[in-house]
Amino acid sequence: MPSLDTPEVRRYSDAVQRYCGVVRAHTVGSLGRFLREIEPALSWLYGAAADLPEVAPDTEEPPEPGAARDEYQRLQGSLAALLGRYDPYREIFDPSDPDDREPVQSLLSIDLVEILEDVEYGRSLMDPNQRISPADVLWQWRFDFATHWGRHAATALRVVSSLLHTQFVDALEDRRPDA
Fold it and tell me: How many domains is the chain built from?
């Protein structure tokens, strides 16, 4: 039986906590500070999720996520305001598909919030009142990473890296856009 008391699970839980803390504290400080903090948090989260063990679930149906959609929409709007003109970006949706050549526009703020929503849902599964088996928790964490938020994280990390190391936004825009 899988355990939630392993170095990999502790590393992932710590990475989730750090990522959530950085995103939720985005209103404190400048855009440059936020980008400098989100880059390692996002990188650590992605790496920790990739190291989680692959396990089979014990049940067919995981519990449904809570309905905190309004909160996440407000958070996305606040992140969009902080990111300002740096929020939109263009990408090829599936770079491994030779027929997918048309770039699509996306928003970094949406990527960051969708990751947050998924990892907070995953963290909620550890609530003792949920009575979910460790195998189901681990399976859900890997599933969400592999099928949804991992793609958002990889793209967001590329965008943040470009903003910091190509556009030098932290040096040029080291203030809140509304300041």
Answer: 1
Whole-model pTM? Answer: 0.87
Please report, as a single letter, which amino acid is at residue 90.
R
DSSP 8-state symbol, 60? S
State the DSSP string of 69-119. Answer: HHHHHHHHHHHHHHHGGGSEEEEES-TT-TT--SEEEEEHHHHHHHHHHHH
- Which phi and psi angles does 166 have, rounded to 5°? -115, -45
**Is 1 contained in some domain?**
no
Dig out the tokens for 1 from the structure.
């039986």
SS3 (DSSP) at 88: strand
Query: What is the predicted pLDDT for the residue at 63?
Result: 64
User: What does the alpha-carbon distance between residue 144 and residue 50 come to, in Å, rounded to a whole number?
Assistant: 11
Residue 121, Cβ neighbours under 10 Å: how many? 19
162 is written with which tokens? Answer: 């470009």
